[in-house]
Design goal:
single chain; mainly beta; 4 helices; about 30% strand
Amino acid sequence: MKLLRFGPAGQEKPGLLDGEGIVRDLSGVIDDLAGKELGDDGLQRLRKLDPASLPAVAPDSRIGPCVGRVGKFICIGLNYSDHAAETGAEVPPEPVIFNKWTSAICGPNDDVEIPRGSKKTDWEVELGVVIGRGGRYIAEEDALNHVAGYCVINDVSEREFQLERSGTWDKGKGCDTFGPMGPWLVTRDEVSDPHELDLWLEVDGRRYQNGSTRTMVYRIPFLISYLSRFMSLQPGDVISTGTPPGVGMGQTPPIYLRPGQKMRLGIEGLGEQSQRVVQA
């Protein structure tokens, strides 16, 4: 299934995309795509529905972030060997973990704001993993059974804030609008191998990122198991798993986003995003 949320920001309703590409309203069945509704029992209940029996949504409706009430937005740094090489960094001996604040989450086609004082706002297309079943000390061999599905994420990053302003990476990663998510939450049964997906990103029609999840250093089952050693994972938590090469910081010379530009990005089978860059 391809699940989504639609409507004005802060007032999104749950929906699904039917086989004809029509968005159907799920708000008469569930209150949101969040929490227990993302577990196997909740998703199985949605699979049994006849999409044609659900109201169609106006085609011009805004698409919101595909997960509601996200508890944790966890990110993995330097998780593609070719991206680590372009930044001059060594592949880390253990996963690099940082957070994006949940206030960074926005819809896949919402404007991305360059923060006040920013000179180095950058882009990163990433595969998002949405937790459906929580747990602690999750066994690697069972980890994918804890996944509700996958989505596209743009891990927008302010490099000066991230790398030159002391402290952790978080201050350059969690600015408002720095977490476009969606358009769809594609359930795990529709993704035969999340480590065999092409992903790409363009700015003003020029393709900068053109990679594959095949070059992930730490794969999804390991990441879920690893994270669950340090925190409990709960339904609706989102893990952004790293980016392939081609970020602005890796260009010669580096290139950063400017107001008026347009980003377009996508992952094979998971849909596309498109964002206009504006000044905060």
